[in-house]
Amino acid sequence: MTFGRKTPQVGLFVLVFTMLFAISCRKNPSAGPTTTPPPPAPATAPPPAPAPTITLRADRTTIDRGESITLTWSSSNAGTVRIEPGIGEVPTSGNRQASPTSSVTYTATATGPGGNASDVARITVNVPPPPPARPSTTTSTTPPPRPTATVRDIFTANEIYFDYDKSDIRPDQVSKLQTLATSIRDNPNVRFTIEGHADERGSQEYNLALGDRRASSVKQYLVSQGIGEGRMTTISYGEERPQCSEQTEDCYQRNRRAALVIQ
């Protein structure tokens, strides 16, 4: 038997042992750094809703009683549109005929998610004079009676006052109107104008509309007391003819009024 020669089995064993030793000595790679995801971006607020706009126009600004006018309006960013007085809710754009019996300021108001907007159209209504009296069968040289100084004094002393931004008749002003109605009934030849006024707060257009509503409220009350509509007309001066100019509540109250003026 020869001992100096390696058998194939011994060589194979040495190779396997070497490979196992190399594997056991290999170090596991260290884990890499952990990456934290960035926080989500904060949510942005939605943009504000656009403000509505509206325009209101009339095909004529002066008419005679009995005639009609056409109101035309258009709006944007509006959900609803109202026209007052007397028309109410309308489409966001369009036109409508109206036949006012006295001078009036129409106000169109557009409402939407972004707020409100308004525009006005002032209409002056000319009231025709009453028909001439039928001739009497008897000849008379006596002129028709004229309003007495007492009637004029009653008109001057009984201006009707209103609360701030209001046009309804206050309870404490009813007795004045009843006194005026009695005097007017006792003087059937008296014809008069009801002037609507406002204090200086608010825009000129808004105060014209407010004065018109105040004059109309007085007119409707007198009509309810038996005074014929043909004897009176209405007009609004808004803030243009103040009684005083101080910026005090007492002065503001004196300017929020309706006055009756004999024609």
Structural topology:
Layout: H1 8-25, E1 53-58, E2 62-64, E3 69-76, E4 80-84, E5 88-90, E6 94-98, E7 104-112, E8 115-126, H2 149-157, E9 160-161, H3 174-186, E10 192-197, H4 204-224, E11 232-238, H5 249-255, E12 257-262
Parallel strand pairs: 2-8, 10-11
Antiparallel strand pairs: 1-3, 3-6, 4-5, 4-7, 7-8, 9-12, 10-12
Overall average residue pLDDT: 83
State the strand order across the main sheet: 2-8-7-4-5
CATH class of the largest domain: Alpha Beta
Number of separate strands: 12
Order of helices and strands: HEEEEEEEEHEHEHEHE
Number of helices: 5
Q: What is CATH's topology name of the largest domain?
A: 60s Ribosomal Protein L30, Chain: A
- Which bin fits the share of residues in helices? 25-40%
Question: Which value, in Å, is the CA radius of gyration?
Answer: 44 Å
**What is the fourth-level CATH superfamily of the largest domain?**
OmpA-like domain
Structurally, how many domains make up the residues? Answer: 2
Sum up the overall morphology in one term.
elongated
Residue ranges: pLDDT <50 for 5 or more in a row?
A: none
CATH architecture of the largest domain: 2-Layer Sandwich
Q: Main β-sheet, in a few words?
A: 5 strands, mixed
Describe the structure.
The chain is of the alpha+beta class and 263 residues long. It folds into two domains: 53-126, Immunoglobulins (Immunoglobulin-like, Sandwich); 149-262, 60s Ribosomal Protein L30, Chain: A. It is built from five helices and twelve strands. The protein has helices at residues 8-25, 149-157, 174-186, 204-224, 249-255; strands at 53-58, 62-64, 69-76, 80-84, 88-90, 94-98, 104-112, 115-126, 160-161, 192-197, 232-238, 257-262. The strands form three sheets. It has a five-stranded mixed beta sheet with strand order 2-8-7-4-5, covered by helices on one side. The protein has a four-stranded mixed beta sheet with strand order 9-12-10-11. The longest helix has 21 residues, at 204-224. The termini are far apart.
